[in-house]
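Data availability (excerpt). The following record was deposited with the supplementary files.
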Amino acid sequence: MTAWKTRSAAVGAIAIALALAALAARTGERESARAARPESADEKRWQAVAPGRVEPVSGTIKIAAPVMGVTAQVLVKVNDKVFAGEPLIRLVDSEARARLAAAEAQIAFRMRARNEEAAPAQTARPTPAAPQRRGEGAAADTDKAAARRRAEDAVAGAVKAAAQAQADLDKAAVDRRADTASDATVEVARAALARAQDAVRQQKAELRRIEADPGTPLPTFADGQVNVARAEAAAAAAALDQLTIRAPISGTVLQVNAKPGELAAPSNAQPLLVIGDVSALRVRAELDERDLGDVKVGQPALIRSDAFRGREVAGKVSFIAPIVGQSRINGRGQRNVTDVDVVEVLVDVVQPDPLAVGMKVDVYFQPEGR
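Predicted structure:
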């Protein structure tokens, strides 16, 4: 009996020791997990803490091909500065240029037929037997029809001049990257394009004024044929322009994925290029919806990153999204019941150094007035 009691006591002691060891292990795991997380709001007296990612003030702009085509030229590289409208990539465009040339030939042919038809009407004079009033009305109609044709021709000429000015600017930008043109050459070309575009607007306004006059006669069949040819040429020019992929904003090239000879399509999963305005940075943070009432626009914040431990970057809340959704920073495929919904908050970075675009950070929202 005594031996049995001794063995029971030993087994009980071993069980207690194992339980204590397991409890200590779980406690250690909790402490490690707590150390791995950002410091809680209560420990540091923050209003809230949220994970985020650094991005340009413009956001990261992912550029895809507007139409399917084969990449002919990649005109920029990473860290290049670009201006809005600058060509970045050219797709193979030989077929599109042939269509445009055919459309312009049709315009020339139909304009010749129109001008030959209009010439007798402009030189005709009322006969003595015709009533004077009727002759004056016919002459006025002829003059207004001629004015409309001149206005239509002026618009077409201005559009063509603007297209040439855009081509000159594109060439100047490409030459500057090849160190065969200066910044001044590019600026002169940009000014010329702006003037050409103003001329297009002015000529279109004049044509609208003439067309709005109730006394202006309707276009003849020959006039309509010219206008149809011009519309077809405009469509061909637009299709050609789509094969030059341009910068939507002024900024910096952050990533280049395109290579000459590769097929580019709007459905490509990977963008051809990524650009952004890195003159200023911001953090797109994901705030737990339970902390939404503690954060306001204009509230100060501190930004910390694992890459620069011990350094804090000042920021200020500039925007709070009006919608709650699931996390995109820490998203891992299928959503779990325990996942927390978040609100996107933009925090402007006061001094960007040393942060880099794409870096993961933690944002600590400070109480107002602190």
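Summary of structural features: The mean pLDDT is 85.
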